[in-house]
Write a structure and sequence with these properties.
There is one protein chain. By secondary structure, the chain is of the alpha/beta class. It is built from eleven helices and 14 strands. A six-stranded mixed sheet has the order 6-7-8-3-9-10, with helices on both faces. A four-stranded antiparallel sheet has the order 2-1-4-5. Strands 12-13-11-14 form a four-stranded antiparallel sheet. β1 and β2 form a beta hairpin. α4 packs parallel to α6.
């Protein structure tokens, strides 16, 4: 992580160019054949293979019980794997545990802390746990970057839930890790503060910190992530750059508000992927979001000409594109 958290470096890669730079970026976390099997025989993780690239925001999505927290806990050294290997910045998490763990900052989902400790002491103590020498200048930079400087003398018990969550991030950054895990970072946080937290996470990424987050808020991943991984039933279903995922699995719809409702789609239009909605008042044309023979302007133009030739009249039209949430639900449903 950059030593100066307050100042972004001018040479940092800008988000708009990230889709090209990520492919050439070396992995900072490598997971190979990772399995977690309990004494009961239940497999929480089933031979997980995953690479997290340096300097990206990686969102790990999955329903409750999918294995998200188990995977993070193993990488962070909190849970032992049954099989497989994890390397963090080249360090094996078992044979070189101390060096691997020093690379990682973890922000847990639970808001746990000493209620009567001050913000300053809470964050400073966390740095000491990793054997780091006291560095008041670094702690100040961390607190200022998270808008906590004015709260440094406040006791934890006096802070709001959102401020406590920021303190947890400050604690995780106190020992200057290269990698930050955020487990449900905005759970229980109001919408306005959630967007403030998104800005904080982007700022950390822009300073070179690799950020891995789990979230139930699909819009959080859609807003922030460079790449998205979907885990279900202990298996990685998909890992893809967000933009590519939206192109490959997204769907667009052209919706035509009809002047007169239809009881059925005319036979002359049967070769198009059309459906009726709103009791026949809306004609829906569904096509892939990525360019193909069904999504070119020419094919839509041909469709509109054929609709007119079939005697169907419409008074308005508009398009809609599927969200990441719809893609995620379809992936999990297909994998179930």
């Amino acid at each position: 992580m950059s030593h100066d958290i307050a100042d972004a470096t001018a040479t940092e890669t800008r988000p708009a160019a990230r889709a090209h730079t990520l492919q050439a970026t070396p992995s900072v976390i490598t997971v190979q054949g990772l399995t977690k099997r309990y004494a009961s025989g239940f497999e929480a993780l089933k031979r997980i293979d995953l690479d997290i690239q340096r300097g990206e925001i990686f969102a790990l999505l999955g329903p409750n019980g999918a294995g998200k927290t188990t995977l993070i806990s193993i990488i962070c050294g909190l849970v032992n794997a049954s099989d497989g290997q994890v390397r963090v910045n080249g360090h094996d998490i078992v044979t070189d545990y101390r060096a691997a763990r020093e690379q990682i900052g973890l922000v847990p989902q639970e808001l746990t802390s000493d209620a009567f400790a001050t913000v300053w002491n809470t964050v400073s103590f966390s740095r000491g746990l990793f054997g780091k020498r006291a560095d008041s200048a670094h702690i100040e930079r961390v607190l200022r970057s998270l808008s906590l400087w004015d709260k440094r003398r406040n006791k934890m018990i006096t802070l709001s839930g959102g401020m406590k969550r920021r303190v947890l991030i400050a604690k995780a950054l106190a020992h200057e890790p290269q990698i930050l895990f955020l487990d449900e970072p905005t759970a229980g946080v109001d919408v306005e503060l959630r967007r403030d937290m998104w800005d904080v996470v982007r700022s950390l990424r822009d300073q070179g910190v690799t950020v891995i987050l789990t979230t139930h808020y699909i819009e959080e991943a859609e807003e922030m992530a460079d790449r998205i991984g979907v885990i279900n039933d202990g298996e990685i279903v998909l890992v893809e750059e967000k933009a590519a995922l939206m192109r490959q699995l997204g769907r667009k719809q052209l919706r035509l508000d009809l002047q007169t409702p239809l009881a059925a789609i005319p036979e002359t239009l049967a070769h198009y992927p059309l459906s009726l909605a709103d009791d026949g008042h809306v004609l829906v044309y569904t096509y892939a979001a990525s360019p193909d023979e069904h999504s070119t302007p020419a094919s839509i133009s041909a469709l509109l000409n054929d609709i007119e030739a079939a005697g169907v009249r419409f008074k308005d039209l508009h398009t809609e594109q599927s969200s990441l949430e719809e893609i995620f639900v379809n992936l999990v449903r297909k994998d179930a």
